[in-house]
Amino acid sequence: MRFVKCLLIATGLMGWGIPSLIASDAPPRYWKLTILHTNDTHGNLLPFNYPDPPDPNTQEAQLALRRNIGGIARRATLVRQLQKGFGTTWLVDTGDFHDGTAFSIEYGGEADVAAMNAVGYTIATHGNHEFNNPRARWQKLIEMARFPVVCANVVDANTKEPLMKPYEILPVEGARIAVFGGHGKHPGLPCHARGHRDSGRHRYGASTGSAASSASRHRDFAFASGV
Ligand SMILES: [Zn+2]
After folding, report:
1. Ligand 1 centroid, distance to 100 Cα (angstroms)
2. CATH classification number, 8-224, choose in 3.40.50.10240, 3.30.420.270, 3.60.21.10, 2.30.130.40
3. DSSP conformation class of 103
């Protein structure tokens, strides 16, 4: 769903990169970093048509049909081309990378994570649709991923501890940047897309805290670590 986004990963990235430059007495250094960003790919590993079929009740019905677009092979090719021309490049996904095609649902997201591993994602956070899987399934996907999956403000409903690593520290030409993941606050976050808006918290055992306050809290930890 497009109205729940996880864009704080990029906000955290930029906001924390700047202090890391000025925290020292040394003259500021400048470096170039290119961030390639994907979101809401929804299991579209194969080329697809869009909208297909258009939902007459949404703005999709106003769009011209585009045939044979997207797919992981095209994405990988584009990433390779861009990486050649932009120096240090991160490939970031901000969620909803699975759940939307029969392929993705049948394999419970494993095909999507395997494809992202092959393309070489740098880091990711999750969207609301990742929680359509049972919690154990989602945790298996995180373990499969050869890139960190971060989010600070989706916590265990009982312990209040984050379900996954809140942030990751990534190097860029000698600098260290804390990349923070956050989720838009949503009371029925887990599994809301399948009509369980009110039961997600209990079914999944998780809840969403404030992305801003979580970012602030974990930023302090990161600064204490010398980022
Ligand atoms: Zn989505």
Report:
1. 9
2. 3.60.21.10
3. H
pTM over 0.85: no
The ranges assigned to domains in the chain are: 8-224
Q: What is the pLDDT of residues 168-227, one digit of tens each?
A: 999 988 888 999 888 876 555 544 433 334 334 445 666 666 666 666 666 555 555 555
β strands within the chain, DSSP E: 34-38, 48-50, 66-69, 89-93, 123-124, 154-156, 167-172, 175-180, 206-208
Give per-residue pLDDT as tens, 103-129: 899 999 999 999 999 999 999 998 888
Ion ligand 1: residues, CB within 5 A, are: 1, 40, 96
Q: How far apart are CA 34 and CA 87, in angstroms?
A: 7
Between the CA of 29 and the centroid of ligand 1 the distance, in Å, is: 38
pLDDT tens-digit series, residues 54-71: 788 888 888 999 999 999
Q: For residue 129, how far is its CA from the centre of ligand 1 (angstroms)?
A: 7
Q: How close is the Cα of 161 to the center of ligand 1, in Å?
A: 25
CA of 83 to the centre of ligand 1 (A): 26
CA 220–ligand 1 middle distance (angstroms): 31
